[in-house]
Specification:
This is DNA recombination and repair protein Rad51-like C-terminal domain-containing protein. One of its GO terms (molecular function) is single-stranded DNA binding. The chain has 314 residues and is of the alpha/beta class. The chain has ten helices and eleven strands. The chain has one domain: P-loop containing nucleotide triphosphate hydrolases (Rossmann fold). Helix 4 crosses helix 5, helix 7 runs parallel beside helix 10 and helix 9 runs antiparallel to helix 10. The termini are far apart.
Length: 314
């Protein structure tokens, strides 16, 4: 005889049916630590920075601009703490280590320390989807095997002090930054061959990244290309009418991650550029979709100096 199913709370079913439900803004602010981007304007647009425990997807108009952006993100993260670590899963086999070294070197008071900082960066080069999943499994295994801190306790007073200091240590402990670049290079051929199967693979992968981000309290940044075909003006996710880009992996990407960003360029409108044949352009990082709703439509403009370092446009 079949047994009846255990009853469940309606609120639990509601949460499961609405994973994108907007939550109060204070939840993100009080429970999340954030990774800085080396740009005050971008950090302000992101309400402090990129959150740990979340997946961020950046659609880039130009792959080179995306590479410059993540190199500055890495340089900033690795310099925050001597224990901060990062992993880059390079799907294009084009990650420029020398350029990253130059950015780090010019940011340090002692340039010779740049190589020591790069010792905390792991680069994993992969060739296909199987290699990508194996790399993610290796990252998870490495993080799960990190030993817990040990200490010798002499008496009850020391034990009490250790509890307090341990709590403080956990609160400020460095976390891992994971960057996947460029996802389009791996999944676009699969989607072109079979759209349904390719989209299912994309959804499965981004859910895997989301689970990894939450369980390991990582900050995950995924880069992908923009589609070669532009969208109509009324269909763009951007608040800028001239930005008609869309993700090459489909319009559903933003619903599978916590934050979806556009990285593109716009002409700079200033008196100096009027007489120029080709006006200078500003880099724009724009939040087009946000799971919690408190960052949507926020954006920041920036540029790079001669050393490749990101700087705000005044």
């Amino acid at each position: 005889m079949a047994t009846s199913a255990e009853p469940v709370l309606a609120s639990s079913l509601y949460d499961l049916e609405h994973p994108n439900q907007k939550v109060p803004q204070q939840k993100r602010e009080t429970t999340k630590r954030q990774a800085k981007t080396s740009s005050k304007a971008i950090d302000k647009a992101l309400n402090g920075g990129l959150d740990f425990g979340e997946v961020n997807y950046t659609t880039t108009e130009d792959r080179g601009d995306g590479s410059d952006f993540i190199q500055n993100l890495l340089a900033c993260h690795l310099q925050i703490s001597e224990k901060a670590t990062a992993t880059v899963i390079d799907c294009t086999l084009a990650f420029d280590v020398r350029k990253l070294h130059k950015i780090v070197q010019t940011s340090l008071p002692v340039p010779e320390d740049a190589l020591k900082i790069l010792d905390r960066l792991k680069i994993m080069k992969i060739f296909d989807y199987t290699g990508l999943t194996e790399a993610l499994a290796e990252v998870r295994e490495h993080l799960e095997q990190k030993p817990a801190p040990k200490a010798t306790i002499s008496d009850s007073e020391d034990e009490e002090d250790l509890v307090v200091s341990g709590a403080k240590s956990d609160a400020i402990s460095p976390r891992e930054l994971l960057i996947v670049t460029n996802l389009t290079h791996i999944l676009a051929p699969m989607i072109k061959t079979s759209y349904v199967q390719g989209q299912a693979t994309l959804a499965s992968l981004l859910r895997l990244l989301g689970h990894l981000a939450k369980t390991q309290d990582m900050c995950v940044m995924v880069l992908g290309d923009a589609h070669t075909k532009k969208v109509a003006e009324g269909e763009t996710l951007s608040m800028f009418q001239s930005c008609l880009m869309r993700s090459a992996l489909g319009d559903g990407v933003g619903h599978l991650v916590d934050t979806h960003l556009y990285l593109h360029k716009l002409p700079r409108k200033n008196p100096e550029s009027v007489a120029e044949e080709a006006p200078r352009k500003a880099h724009i990082l724009e939040v087009v979709q946000d799971r919690y709703g408190d960052r949507s439509s926020q954006w920041a403009a920036f540029e790079y100096d001669s050393d490749g370092r990101m700087k705000d446009i005044s």
